[in-house]
Amino acid sequence: MNNIGINQRGFSNTVTTLVLTLIVLIFQGCGGGSSSTKDSKPSDDFTPVVTQTGIVAFDDASKTAQPIELFLYYPDDTLSNISWQQTTGSELVFHAKHSKGIAFSPSAAGEYSFQVSFTRNGVSETLSHTVITSDERSQISARLGHAALEGSNVSLRASIENAALTNNSIIWQQTSGPTVTFSEVTEGQSAVFFKAPAVSADSLLTFTVSASDGATEQQDTIAILVENAATISSDDNTAYDSRLATVFPFNANSPYADVLVNCVYNNRIDFRTSCRFDELPLIAQDTTTPTIDDIMDRVVVSHQWMGQRFKEFLQHSDQQDDFKNLLRATTAIVISYDIRPSYYWVVTGAIHLDPENLWLTPDERDTINQAPDFRASFGNELNFAMPWRYVKNNNYASFYYPQDLRLTRDASEGVFDLASLMYHELAHANDFFAQSTWANLDRNDRILDAADKILKSTGIQSDMLSTSLPLNGTQMYRLAQVRYQGETATSNEKNYSPSDVTGFFRPEHAPQFYNYTSKREDYAMLFDGFMMKARYDIDRDVAVTSQPESTGEQYIVTWGQRGRIGDVNIKPRVDYVTRRILPEFTSAPNIINNLDAPIAMESGKTWAENLAISPEVNQANKIVLDSFQLTNSKANRFNANGPMFYEKPIPKRN
DSSP string covering 160-210, please? Predict the structure, then answer.
């Protein structure tokens, strides 16, 4: 088989555009020879003109630390059972070995060979390919090339290796394939986002990213393979009307491997024909004492590493069996690169986890879509902020990791964030399907229908809480709809000062602003906040502050508290939910009864200066640490303004 090598990074922008428009690529496979392929004019349903197939590579000669993509390209054929493996060279990391595209970044010069086995139109085949990496180090790198279904959300990120190159000089350009529309301004941005365009057959997109030090420009090329996919139904009964990522069972030998994906994370899920409990039961319907293996049989992932990290979390961070017990009220756990934010959904009975809380290495993080939470700008017109944070020993208990830095973290550093998320989302699952309901569930019912029956008969647990121990606070409910649901603020609401909001919130019986999003969120917030205190001795701070108008401006506290769940009026509500969500936690009532009263923040001081307010730690030694964390969290706006979790609404059906 012949090989044609083109080092595209060596061309000027003009020549690169010409070459890539013609899709003069490196092909190896069927036919083996060289030829040019010309893309048709971009349209609403792009169709490539294909004259060559096989392994497609964009760099056979690359620099050290420069990402390389390899794609298995047979747009007119049906491919399955894809498996990539490295055959020679220093060991490389790639996390999509069963997809049509892999990407990797050699850290040392040398030759690297790969083999891909696959089934094409029912026939098994194998191809191989070799790339060469020089000892010259890349100055700028674009990540992560991959295969994505049409309509999927795609994110690309540039990493600058040379400190002389400036972020504000970054320029992204599309150089071939069906035209994409970036969702935000791209100049000076290290990350860009777009939706994969509609295609009638698998199509390749290529982009360049460049940066300058004022005299010299450095550039990298990245490619995305957009896969043709079935049209998503526009019927009102379609559960997911936006494209979902391709996922698979973590355990291929799971007794539910054949139904998991179709039941919980698939664009073909229809409210009228969704799965019944006899197809995919709650874990509790199989066993009330699940093992980790039982749990992992219900895990669905977009990348294998995600399930492995989740398994390790259960092995090392669930000594009291809280999470195994809480997971009994679910049908499955979905962990996929396109999930943001995390959520529980009663339609499928599954929890859906953003893998941002699971990655340990830069290569793992590269596989996660980095698009910001869609709620990031909600409530910007309000005149106050309600920041929050997890605190342990007068210091932050969770950490922000700048996405521009390629960092490795220890598993222990993500435990608190993942634990709080799990307590919260699983509180939702146990709200809809409390232990008291398990014995009476009809296996012939669809999961959503079973929940509807409970809602229409007795109501679920959060309904009962809102009747027995209700929240009031009309103004807080309205402001929460603006901040967390994206509703438009009235002129009065825009003018509320921090003092006004303090007057609304302080006498209320909710530990956080987010409790006012809905009855369901109120129920879950009471539980997760208490469990973090009971199991990890972690408190949650909440405050009403000024709304900074620039990144350098401080949050000035009007009122705030640490450990608000210890309020005498909130304790009964915490006790109510904990008894129902996790009755195995028999010591909880005593712990709740002995919770310390909230600690007040000092009005007029900054949010940073109010970090070390617990009596046992020297405050002066902690303020600098807080300032560092606040600077990082302000880059992620909703740490400052409060969106903490996400409630995916129950569908309205006729």
Answer: E-STTS-GGG-EEEEEESS---BSS--TT-SEEEEEPPPBSS-EEEEEEEE
